[in-house]
Amino acid sequence: MTSNTELRGIVYNGTNCYSSGMENSRKVVRTFTKQILQCVENLLEQDHKSSGTICIAEFGAADGGVSLELMVTLIDHINKFLDDLRDIIIVYEDQLFNDFNVLFKTVHATNSNMTNKLGDNVHVLASATSMYRKCVPFASVDLAFSSMANHWLSEKPCENRDGIFQTDCNNEDLKAFRHQWKTDWKQFLSCRAKELRQGGYLAVVSFVTDDNGRCNNHVGENSYQVFTSIWEEFQQCGKITQEEFLHTSSVTYHPTKAELVQPFQDDIKGCLTLVSCTQRDIEIFPDLPNNAGIEEKEMFIEKSIKCIKPWLYNILQSGLSKDRTEEDKAKIMQDYFRKLRNILAQKSEFCPVLYRTACVVAKRT
Ligand SMILES: C[S@@+](CC[C@H](N)C(=O)[O-])C[C@H]1O[C@@H](n2cnc3c(N)ncnc32)[C@H](O)[C@@H]1O
Fold first, then answer.
1. What does the DSSP assignment read for 40-97?
2. Residue 171: is it exposed, middle or buried by C-beta count within 10 angstroms (0-12/13-18/19+)?
3. CA-based torsion, 221, 222, 224, 230: positive or negative
4. Grouped pLDDT means (10 residues each) for the chain, 365 residues
5. How close is the Cα of 78 to the center of ligand 1, in Å?
6. What is the C-alpha separation between 209 and 216, in angstroms, rounded?
7. CA-CA distance, 299 to 199, in Å (whole number)?
8. Which protein residue's CA is at the shortest distance from atom 15 of ligand 1?
9. What is the CA radius of gyration of the chain?
């Protein structure tokens, strides 16, 4: 049996589209919108006399719904700034197994009651590749953007023998995950440097970790421990096999801020210049007061599960044996999230949910 690599990094939200539940990720993008707008303003000031097409590319876009608000803001800005209505191309990139059909429905707003806000001068294209390869032609992009995707590795460097997440890793496994991330990040930057036009900008919103390797606290300080312990319990009671437990790894590495900016000090020097790296701890939702009623608690739990399940579901499912039936897998996943819900329901304290993030802005020189 092998684990299912096709699910790696692919987001899941049941029958709903991914971004419909991701108000948390939209909040993260909103935090950095001003900085990204500034990149576009600089671009337009440099380039307002040319009549060429403007190209924005998003890497690891999922269904495009999280960044749509940002895209609409950027396009409005471009349309207002320039005298002529310029053609704008948006290239949405993600992995081959991403659901691009949902992406087109989302950005053209045919699967919601939002009207299409992109306008006739905006042309939406897609690239099903890997952000660790060159995805669009040489020197064709004005603004390259990515949000909450650069922690996904191009390949699993080794099994995480002690659990599922970075925080579970022993020193040796952690070293291998870190090494893979550093290689991938350099590769990502070098591909974007080739794709950007001279004077173009790159803006990457990334998770960053604290000294303990954590970048969020979905269910309190010990979130990842809780997620792993349920899976461990499933193994101990025979719901999943030992082999399945071993094959379940989040193929991710969350960098520190220093690791994010490191390549700009040497490798990428000369083609991408770091403009800024701004760190922000973002409150995804506030804590609950001690006297909160049952209904408020239920709502808090509902919101928490909504922003955990889309990324955790396939991490767990990818460890399950291919020999299992789809019904069997679905039942295990249902039991897992029911158990998580029960653990949350027993909590007496609900701290604010925080994401530690940073936005790297760089210019193609
Ligand atoms: C957590 S989601 C983030 C989606 C969206 N950008 C947001 O801000 O919510 C991570 C996305 O990265 C994509 N991804 C992971 N590895 C990738 C790769 N090698 N190339 C392109 N996309 C990748 C996944 O398919 C997924 O859509």
1. HHHHHHHHTT--PPEEEEEES-TTSTTTHHHHHHHHHHHHHHSSS---EEEEEEEETT
2. exposed
3. negative
4. 64 72 90 97 83 93 94 94 91 94 88 70 96 96 97 93 91 96 97 95 95 75 89 97 94 95 83 95 89 90 90 93 95 96 89 93 95
5. 26
6. 8
7. 46
8. 9
9. 21
Does the global pTM surpass 0.85?
yes
Q: Which CATH architecture has domain 5-364?
A: 3-Layer(aba) Sandwich (3.40)
∠ CA 301-64-89, nearest 5°, is 160
Token pair in block for residue 133: 């390869």
For the record, the structure tokens of 362 come out as 């760089």
What's CA 86's distance to the chain center, in Å? 30
94 CA to centre of ligand 1 in angstroms: 6
Centre of ligand 1 from the C-alpha of residue 183, in Å:
17
